[in-house]
Specification:
Layout (H helix, E strand, L loop, with lengths): L1 H16 L7 E5 L6 H4 L8 E3 L4 E3 L2 E2 L4 E3 L7 E4 L4 E6 L4 E3 L13 E3 L7 E5 L3 E7 L4 E3 L14 E4 L2 E6 L2 E6 L2 E2 L14 E4 L5 E6 L2 E7 L4 E3 L5 E2 L4 E6 L5 E5 L2 E7 L4 E3 L12 E6 L6 E5 L2 E8 L2 E4 L5 E2 L8 E2 L2 E5 L3 E17 L4 E8 L6 E8 L5 E6 L4 E7 L14 E17 L7 E3 L5 E6 L6 E2 L12 E5 L9 E10 L5 E4 L9 E3 L11 H4 L4 E10 L11 E4 L2 E10 L18 E2 L11 E4 L3 E8 L2 E7 L1 E2 L2 E2 L1 E8 L6 E9 L12 E2 L2 E6 L4 E4 L11 E6 L14
Parallel strand pairs: 50-60
Antiparallel strand pairs: 1-40, 2-3, 3-39, 4-31, 5-6, 6-7, 7-8, 9-10, 10-11, 11-12, 13-14, 14-15, 15-16, 17-18, 18-19, 19-20, 19-21, 22-23, 23-24, 24-25, 26-27, 27-28, 28-29, 28-30, 32-38, 33-38, 33-39, 33-40, 34-35, 34-38, 35-36, 36-37, 41-42, 42-45, 43-44, 43-46, 46-47, 48-49, 48-51, 51-56, ...
Length: about 725
Amino acid sequence: MKKTIITLIMIAIFLIIAPPTWATNKWEYSITNMDTPTVIDQSQTTADVDTQNNEISLPRFNPGAAAFWPDGSPDYIVMTPTEIKHYSWTGSQTVENTVLSVPGQNNPLSIAAPAPYPDVVVVDKDRGATHYSFTGNDMVENPALSVADLSGVLFVGAREDVLAGLVDEEVRAYKSGSRDTSLEPSVDLSNPMGLSLYPDRNNMAILEPDRVRFFMDTGTQMVENPALSVTGLTNPKAIGTGNDLDTAIVDGNQVKHYSFDGSSLRYNNTLSVNSGLTTPTCVALRPGSNDRIIVDGNEVKYYRFKNGSLNYDPDRSTTVTGLDQLGGYAPKATVVSQVKNTTVDTTFLRIRAYHALPQGTSVTWHLTTDGTNFTEAMRLKNDTGTAICEAFDPDTLSWTNIGSATKAGPDQDTKELWIELPAGRDIIWKAVLETDDPEQTPKVIKNDVAVVWEAGNPPEKPDLNLPAQCYVSTTPTINWSFSDPDPGDTQSGYQVIIRKQSDGTLVYDSGTVFSSEPEFKIPTSEQPDVPGPLWASGEHEFTVEVRTFDAVGIPSEWSDPAEFCIVGLERPRIKELVSPGAGQTPPVPDQPSTYLVVKKGMTEDELPLTKAGGKVGMLVDSIGPLNSLDAVFPYLNKEATVHKIENIGALGSSTNRWLVEFWTEASIEECPDGTIVEMDMRGYSTEGDTKLSTVDAPPYAAGVVKTMGSVYEDWVVVLKGRDN
């Protein structure tokens, strides 16, 4: 017995303290050094994930910061914020050659050293690729070889009189200053990060996030040679090429060298630099040798190959102030999450995140349920100075603007961001960051969290519970059952659509109603000159469809259309008060907007005022094929005189309007002030009878009118006599 009591106590404690089972799978990411290793797939991520500042941004590249000339000269050039510095070897050390330097620069993005020595190409944001040549005295611009179309390009390569640059995701090549498309690969590139031209042949290497692709010139076009591709890269940043297909890649904090073995490019450990580097951003190979320079922060480190090994040579190296601040943001980069597994197949996903978006930047989010096939889901972009949020529709393959970028925040329960995908259990998100301006980057940032993503399933299709007979109310309540495959999930809202049964014409759309109740009462109009939606349709037979939303806003399928019909009376309104009570503004009979609507639930103090004995003209609408209408207006222990019940329309039609006129006794003794005149109105049809009553429970209202004064007060007695 004691053991049983203890067990029951433990169960009770568990029920009190155990958190409820949430209907969806939900994950959060805050860009910290604690959660990043378990959330981000570093092997697929090229964006800069900064756990110190809790932000994700485009990586800042400086891949074109230094270059050698194709002739194999030991001289090299390095860009600085204000000039391109030329360094020459004196025989004992490297020194700046001010005669061959190019001053007058403004934060250049990339440089190249084409033939002949000592020509220089400088790329900046505004002027494009400017070619400088030596006059014998100094370096001057050479407009004939300059290319304005390469403005803002971070990656350029040069060989003799050929210049190539990466513009968005394509290569543009120029020979002697003119575009030459035969030197441009015609294949699709995947987020290219750099390119380099081999100095001794018409070949090209293009760096992508996970590989190097090799292209060779056939004389008429550039053709890819997959056998010479390089794979297995983890965090590539820049590429440099030399003679005999030598290829060097900055990968993380190493510079890996690949040599041609007759059939492929193989890793060469002897010519690789695997230690001693902190933040390498650029590598340039010296043609005709195994030497190279590596830009590491503000240092230009010269590595010399001598006696069978590659070693750092401080005499040929130099330090350039401001070098680490040059270059620009990569035009595009990706951050990818690790897979999150759900225990059951999931069909709906949603992702939300906080962003900082300068003009000209964007972040596009992709989702997958199978770990492989991604679908666009959400896009944040700032094209005009205002950042907006867009939701993707997989059915129409189109984007819809759903508001400002704040709609994407995890603090916003934005239902439009749910997206339906094929069922699966391997949940991954991917964010693609892009910029049109190398000086600006979009960011994913942390507030309380940075990224929230959820996976769940929609509720089951609702089952409607409708009667076999017609409703005898024009505002019937539609009921359904809610069910969801996710344990513990609940209804957060619904939407109801009503159509004509005859042709499917839309009659009423509730829009999304936020409610946990599995029912909806069809409304009617309370405006004197606006009919209810069902009456306005001109019919009394309808279909209704319902869809529900679960706790996080995932919608169900629409229910199967269910048929129903209406036989009812609605919207009693006073058209005419021949003798209005004191303080009552009478309606104008030919101006429906002035009619006095007797609303459901009206109290005695809210009823229209009429004088005892004064004629009251009332309109009432009917839905359903009524053949007749009876009306009784009781008050005290009496009944008002019903002067007229007139159908304005055709008896037996689906909708009608009825005029009813009545009055009470005029005597104050028979009908004192404050008398409430009630209503008991009944309609008859072959499809059922209906009523509108303030007498029967529950009463429609306290009554239809209240008396105040008497029509006798308006009478004037005129005495006439005769003088005999």
